[in-house]
Amino acid sequence: MPFALLKYGLKSSHPIDPHFRWAGDLKKTYDVVIIGAGGHGLACAYYLATTHGITNVAVLDKGYLAGGNTARNTTIVRANYLTPEGVAFYKESVDLFRSMSIELDMNVMYSERGHFTLAHTDAAMRTARWRAEVNKHLGVSSEVIDAREVKRICPTMNVSDNVRYPILGALYHPPGAIARHDSVAWGYARQAMRKGVEVHPQTEVKGILVEGGRAVGVTTTRGTIRAGKVMQAVAGSSSHVARMAGLRLPIKTIPLQACVSEPVKPILDQIVVSGSLHVYISQSARGEMVMGGATDPYGLYSTRSTLDFKEGLMGHMLELFPFMGELKILRQWAGMADMTPDFSPVMGLTPIENYYIDAGWGTWGFKATPVSGKRMAECVATGRQPDLLKPFALSRFDTFDLVGEKGAASVGH
User: Fold this and answer.
1) Rounded Cα gap, residues 160 and 157, in angstroms
2) pLDDT of residue 412
3) Which parts of the chain have pLDDT scores under 50?
């Protein structure tokens, strides 16, 4: 039973409490302005208010609450990355997800399923062993299993040799999970608003005010705001917004597509990913098969979907799960993914004083929502790069001290 429902039932009275406490007019000055009212921006506002006592915060978005990539992702949570820096970062995120429903007083439908990264080649098996050893060393549960064990854990998967890409084995990550993306964003938004944070949708930032190498405010479609500190967390618009502040980011923006089938009874408990085939699938709590693949092969600022993506995806899906042959596609969509050269995010301080960045998430931003919010709030509040974020600093591209996660990004999930 959700904790919120139990509390509600035990109360003797039930006064009306609006889910969101929407702000009215913009104030002239805020301590912190966050550009982007998605999961990361809202989580940062929440931790600024609850952990650091900074409540004079405005979260701005040109659209609606959590209507960007937060509304367009496929909700997979995992920590089975390749580099020690990446594993430690996502391990903290998984830990935060596990207690999120109670902390935010909202059921985010966090469900641990077990996560397969399938291997179809000897090279993929070697990478799986490498990842498993790094994971175990840092306290993350992962192990390499053979095709027979894959079939035992996931009976619905086809592990026959009579396919184009036979399964040799997999990296199995038991903590792999899914969560409800809108509940995560709404939970952070509601609790942040209760602490006094203002969230302003339909408020587009048109410029960043920089004076003497220091960010001092933003100009918006509703007027100019002065701010002690400014942070951007805008996913597919990262390069565009950073350019307003005079920053050039090592990021390429590429569409990422996904789709869901019509709902069916529970048949697939696990999350299945193939880095070689560039596909992934899980079944939602509503029974839909949630499916996706790699980013599009070219850069584009667009959220259109294509038939080509769907045709290629279904060919692989039917080999892995022949029972899906009669299912119909219910809907299809796309988001915009910010890809860095080393497949790791850009977080923390920038060359502009009091201007902070949370960008470069590629296709793995949702799973980092709580840890990025917590650590970016620490960075903004203290003006220092937290230890967990030091490997992901923007300055690493000047020193070539990269965090190569391409081997574990697979299709980004």
Assistant:
1) 9
2) 46
3) 412-413
Integer Rg of the chain from CA: 21
- Residue burial 211-238, b: 16+ Cβ < 10 Å; e: rest: eeeebbbbebeeeebebbbbbbbbbbbb
> Hey, what are 218's tokens?
């933003």
The structure's pTM equals 0.93
Last residue of a domain, which of 323, 339, 355?
Answer: 339
CB-based contact 245:380 (threshold 8 Å): no
Q: Between β-strands 29-35 and 115-119, what pairing exists: parallel, antiparallel or unpaired?
A: unpaired
Q: Mark 334-350 as b/e (b = at least 16 C-beta within 10 Å).
A: bbbbbbbebbbbbbbbb
125 and 161 belong to one structural domain: yes
User: 258 pairs with which residues across the strands?
Assistant: 292, 333
Query: Are both 134 and 58 inside the same structural domain?
Result: no
pLDDT in tens, 36-59: 999 999 999 999 999 999 999 999
Are residue 394 and residue 256 in the same domain, yes or no?
no
Residues 41 and 154 in one domain: no
| Selection from 237, 231, 192 nearest residue 208 by Cα | 231
DSSP string, 52-102: T----EEEE-SSSTT-SGGGTS--EE----SSHHHHHHHHHHHHHHHTHHH
The 8-class DSSP code of residue 362 comes to B
8 Å CB contact between 118 and 214 = no
Q: What residues form DSSP beta bridges with 62?
A: none
Give which of 236, 328, 242 is closest to 291, Cα–Cα.
Answer: 328
Please answer whether residues 173 and 112 qualify as being in contact, where contact means their C-beta atoms are separated by less than 8 angstroms: no
Can you tell me the distance from the alpha carbon of 321 to that of 183, in angstroms, rounded to the nearest whole number?
A: 30
CA angle 351–357–360, rounded 5-degree value: 115
pLDDT score recorded for residue 360: 95
> Quick one: pLDDT at residue 413?
41
From the number of C-beta atoms within 10 Å of its C-beta (0-12, 13-18, 19+), residue 158 rates as middle
Residue 197 is assigned to a structural domain of this protein: yes
**The total number of structural domains that make up the chain:** 2
Q: What is residue 13's predicted lDDT score, i.e. its pLDDT?
A: 77
Burial of 194 (0-12, 13-18, 19+ CB in 10 A): middle
End residue of a domain, out of 339, 373, 393 = 339
**In terms of Cα–Cα distance, which of 92, 59, 50, 100 is closest to 377?**
50
